Amino acid sequence: MPPATPEPTRPVGAALELLVHGVGGTTPELMLDDPRTVRITGDKTAAMYRRTVDQHAEEEPERFADGRPVPEAYCWCNLTSGNGSRALWLLLLPFMVANLAHWMRPPAERQAGSVRLYGVLVRLLALTLTVLLTAAACEVALDLTAWQCAGSARCAQERSWLGFLSAAQGGWWSQPGRRLALAALVPAALVGLLWYLSHRTWSAYEAQRPPRGDVDGNGTPDRRPRPALGRPGFWYGRRLVARLRAAHTAAGFLTVAAAVAGAAARHDRSAAGPARAALGWALEAALFLGAVAVTWVVCRRGRSEKRLDNRLDRAAVSWLPGASIALLVLAALYAGWSRPGWRSTGTLPGDTTFSVITLAQGVLVLSLAVVSTRLYRRAPHTRTVLWGLGGPAVAMLACALGGVMSGGVAQRVADWLDGPATPGTGEDPIGPPVLLSWQASVIPVLLVLLLVPVAVLAVRTALTARRLAPVVEAEYEGERPDVVRTRRIAGTRARAALTDAAPVVVGIVSGATLLLGAGALAGAWLSGTVPGKAFTGGHPFVESTAEAAQALGSWLIGFGFILFVTWGRRAYKDASARRTIGILWDVGTFWPRAAHPFAPPCYAERAVPDLAWRMASWTGRTGGRLVISGHSQGSVLAAAAVWQLPAGTRRRVALLTYGSPLERLYGRWFPAYFGPGPLGELHREVHCWRNLWRRTDPIGGPVKLPAEGGKPEVDHRALRDPVVYGRTSEHPLPEPILGHGDYQADPVFAKERTVLLDRLPPALPLPAPDRAAPPLPGQRDDSRNGGDDPREGVVGFRGQGSGEPGEGDAQGSSGRSSG
């Protein structure tokens, strides 16, 4: 019997360097330092690229016999950038900021009740923002336009397009109820648009299943407790987003229905018979029950992260929006009932609506602060921002943004409809609720208060730069001192340190906003009810001062709104502007939509599964070594993807981060997910990790993880920036101060990458993949029934890498990545 032919094996030296860019994005040509690149997997939104000559590198082992890794680039910039129209996402900034507050809770051990309460409070706060946005749209369309302007002969005469609604014309649409029913189409369309965008973006970006991180390298379930970002369902919030989307959509429609039916019901109770009054009471009772159902759905269930939850709550998702639309239709029909003697005078009761929303938001923020303090006291840490109050402070900013945007739109529309008249003056005055006028009046006060910390930071930065001058010269010992050069380096370091002062500024702004908001609420309750005027009936000097503050605040709101949209549009077109504000936007959209379903889409729910699937499939197919190299925000994506890997795959992966905000931003603001505990656990789980940073970097910094369990310290000592101080024979021209960019230009980068590859165990000899690998435990084999398989396009995915640790020899490659 002839001897069995040995199965062919893969090359034992396979190694891959997976590059992940950071904020602002870049091109695969720049990342790979080669003008000829090819997409090997992915689509136009996010994809993996290689140099053309490396497209089939695994089949050409002789080219990498010296141990050099194959460079491969993951480009995800199209997930957060695009054409200028996408700047309209910035209009949903309050929703994004509220969603951030959900993830800012302090870490908690054995405090499940407090954690659940924290999540419920944030979700309720997010619900009030949806109601506030819808109420602002109702204020503009129903109150200012259909009720006040169409009911005023002067305003309707100046606006010809309102002629068919004018009460003076006496047409069919001239009755107030019918005008309100017709105007309700505008806020209802806005709510429908938000629902559509939330549903479409989830389908496009967030419906990507991660690999089964609960399966170990030998195919057995991994039952060890996992950090939050390593749980199977963390990046798959399908169930919660669907529930919240249904609840918020219903809340928006119910708000519109209440605005339409409320005015008609109040008229019927005072001027109509008992039958019609009873009908109004019944409709309002149904709206109240709908509001209770929405609140119950929002409070009942939070995120499910311990398992991949594919279920949907069909009852809530299906009937809640439909029932709210039915109530809106009934409200429109009820309001459209003929009432010949009804005349629209004054304003709709917007003061009560906005006052209740503002009061509810203040109570929720204070309750959130109490819960956060309780959580922080159980596990205090000096690096946590604002002593655990970062979440409530950011939630307060979300409420302030929502109030400013809603009040600004109402003020500007009122000024436009009122023509040359000043709001609150003249015959038939047209103006927004008094509370919105008060909120506009306190904006100049808030800006004056902000000047104090800004001035303090400016002086402190100048003093810090002067103090750092001798420190900089001492680091470049032997160089001839140059005052201009030293001042420039020291100034860059001092300005980079301003990032660490952000918590203080946020705390001051949030505290001042809370106090001024309470003052505006009290002022609205105590002042007169003339629409568009914040203060009436007092001393002439006080009244004129309040009127000037109101006018200035109104114009500041309008100017800020235009500037906001303009800068947002520029950020999508201009790379420099995007790098300036991109880190804030990318931090906000990194997190899943756990509190507000109308927030901008989470790009990480696409990017993290992409990276995890690629690492698991490549190591499982080749048995090779892999170093994932992430810059800036790319380092956060890399760390999150490593957390999602099976334990066997993590043993074959090294992590290289540079310019990383993992501890400086994420660890301080999101301590429950990137604090010392989770980062320390990642250090113990990943085979090896190295972090590069500079003192001139305003975003990146050290991760502060010491040597542990035989593993060296994660942080490299601070890199010199610039590399040389003056002119040398090797650097005859002045070297730039790189700050946050181009870490690959430092010789330390290639050296540390080589060291990481050397620490990884050698590549494993694996059988050639002549047959498809079996599915992971718990996964169905969709190839037998023609179903959609999330592993489509990944050849030989095994989701694991096994083997005993050993010694390896590898050399660095010349791949580049850019942030």
UniProtKB/TrEMBL annotation:
Residues 209-225, 779-792 have a biased composition (Basic and acidic residues). The keyword ATP-binding does not apply. The chain crosses the membrane at residues 87-105, 117-137, 180-197, 246-265, 277-298, 319-337, 352-373, 385-410, 438-459, 501-528, 548-568. Keywords: Membrane, Transmembrane, Transmembrane helix. Residues 762-777 have a biased composition (Pro residues). Residues 796-805 have a biased composition (Gly residues). The keyword Transmembrane applies. Residues 208-230, 761-819 are annotated as: Disordered. InterPro entries: AB_hydrolase_fold. Signal peptide: none annotated. This is Integral membrane protein. The lineage of its organism: Bacteria, Bacillati, Actinomycetota, Actinomycetes, Kitasatosporales.
